[in-house]
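Data availability (excerpt). The following record was deposited with the supplementary files.
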Amino acid sequence: MFSQTIETPIQVIDWLAWTKLGVQVSIKREDTIHPFISGNKWRKLKYVLQEARVNNKTHLVSFGGAYSNHLVALANAGAQYGFKTTAFVRGEEVHNHMLGLCKCWGMELIFVSRDAYRNKQKLFDDYSGTSKQMLMIDEGGRGASAAKGCEEILDDVEGYTHVCCAVGTGTTLAGLAIAAQRKNIIAEGFCVLKGAEEIEDDIRVLTNKHTSFVMHHQFHFGGYAKSDEAMMPFIQTFAKETGILLDQVYTAKMVRGVDELIKQGHYPYGSKILLIHTGGLLGLLSMI
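Predicted structure:
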């Protein structure tokens, strides 16, 4: 279960606006790992689920918003590998395609107020009681085991000067930064949340404060799950010219950020940039 080694394809992005500035860009297609447990969701869950099985945990409990890719991935993984799953969902009860899929795979959904959601440990403790079979998984799957899984994204990667990813909880960037430092690659994160500079402290905790990375906070395009009028045209242009879909919450913001930084001269001539496609494409359906 989740024990196999995954090597995902790398696709060159041959955009004239980038190549004429002497920058080579490729994208690692982590979105191709699995249709529902895609990208960094698979990487984050790999060791968590292995540890759950070893420790005889049969019921996975996690947290997320109404459009959480993590909850979709967890629900599917639970159904595939024999775990019961429960999710505390932030906010009033709603119905959408993401939560509908979670319910199809048997996930119990518990809607809680935003105030109650802030104390996730209390929610879990009150729900689990004296049960020893339940495992609490933090929002977005964040944690040291998840970062360990994200390190493996770069196992088959050599020859790049920069690796870039979108940042939500910071777990993926933490894993990438640890692996990138071993390979002399600069790890760069593009935060999709507005005013979340403190997330860098969380990343430093996961990397034991000995790993360097660069964080860009200016490409949130309005904040989490928000975007500007140019976002959908950018996604459509990128899809039409490369065949690759990007989601508006994470990966499209990162690619737009890289595009702007290339044009601003942030990357030296001759740079070889690897973008990480972290999946989560189901969220795009809410915009189309």
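Summary of structural features: Residues 40-54 form the longest helix (15 residues).
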